[in-house]
Amino acid sequence: QTRVLTGITTTGTPHLGNYVGAIRPAIAASRRADVDAFYFMADYHALIKSDDPARIERSRLEIAATWLAAGLDPNKVTFYRQSDIPEIPELTWFLTCVTAKGLLNRAHAYKASVDKNNELGEDADAGVTAGLYMYPVLMAADILAFNAQQVPVGRDQIQHIEMARDIAQRFNHIYHREFFVLPEALIEEQVATLPGLDGRKMSKSYDNTIPLLAGGAKQLRETIMRIVTDSRAPGEPKDPDSSALFMIFRAFASEAESAAFRRALEEGIGWGEAKQVLYERIEADVAPMRERYESLIARPAAIEEILHEGARKARAIAAPKIAELRDAIGLRAMS
Ligand code: TYM
């Protein structure tokens, strides 16, 4: 059995990038008989980015409903909320004590903040919390607490998985035992980074996302119509390979559909019409999910129950693991 694990930070509404980068491949993996899947809402991670309790709670509900609407079977997948697993912050501390500070200095998210401060002539660490700095260690604990082997993520998370490997290796080395399995990122090469409305990576922090389910078909269509294109008029040939619109289409289409759309662009289909084609392609996948989503989101108590059961199953794995570690590192009970 292969253990597969992934999480989504509860700071916003799931967007197309979350879906094609993580949710869709994770659900496909969970249907394989040889896979033991662990999927969760990363709400401890959310505290690093948001101090708005209502937003975090709303996001958690939306993300949970999205996973379920997209086909996650809670009887088959261990589906939980990170903050229901007290073993995770405990493991985070054990890992913190073997993690080189220099490793964390190299994390992209931290470095981006430092670079921006330097550009503005501010103190390098201005506005940087210790939480942001420690982000990769918390994520390593998420993965290592369950000895996950494969982690389906978008390309932006690869560095974090590599850091989890480094931290696991260091811990195993220091304590002379293979406590942790070394995890690997599972990347969909076709869609490793889905572009957003402006062509940059689709991301909550760039405010360029297309929501997957929230807002209904109307909002999906309206947002797709806002994708930035060049100014070529209908009839003029378009370059599919430099078009965010085409990249997004490809993430939802078969090879044959993509080839046909490529030809249509090269033959000069107007951007407005191309956007309508994209909208219809995505809506065909999303419409059945949206119906389930609407009914799930109206029953938060039922979702809560599923997550409680998931936490129970997750802790049954994580608690003995932490007990074993406590013994090994010198925190054994006196008897
Ligand atoms: P988060 O919440 O930013 O994103 C959730 C997942 O969506 C993927 N993703 C994308 N994939 C392709 N194209 C895009 N434009 C795009 N935008 C987002 C992300 O790569 C991710 O897989 N730190 C993580 C959450 C996390 C986690 C974990 C993941 C916490 N602990 C343990 C895996 C294992 C994060 O903030 O993802």
From TrEMBL:
Domain of life of the native organism: Bacteria
Subcellular location field: Cytoplasm
Its EC number(s): 6.1.1.2
Gene Ontology MF terms in the entry: tryptophan-tRNA ligase activity
Binding-site list for L-tryptophan: 142
KW Ribosomal protein (keyword) present: no
Assigned keywords, A-Z: Aminoacyl-tRNA synthetase, ATP-binding, Cytoplasm, Ligase, Nucleotide-binding, Protein biosynthesis
Residues reported in the UniProt entry to bind ATP: 9-11, 17-18, 154-156, 194, 201-205
Catalytic activity of the protein: tRNA(Trp) + L-tryptophan + ATP = L-tryptophyl-tRNA(Trp) + AMP + diphosphate + H(+)
Motif 'KMSKS' region, residue numbers: 201-205
Motif extent ('HIGH' region): 10-18
Biological role: Catalyzes the attachment of tryptophan to tRNA(Trp).
Self-association and partners: Homodimer.
Family, per entry: Belongs to the class-I aminoacyl-tRNA synthetase family.
Name of the protein this chain belongs to: Tryptophan--tRNA ligase
Organism placement in taxonomy: Bacteria, Pseudomonadati, Pseudomonadota, Gammaproteobacteria, Lysobacterales
Stretch of the intact protein here: 2 to 336 of 456
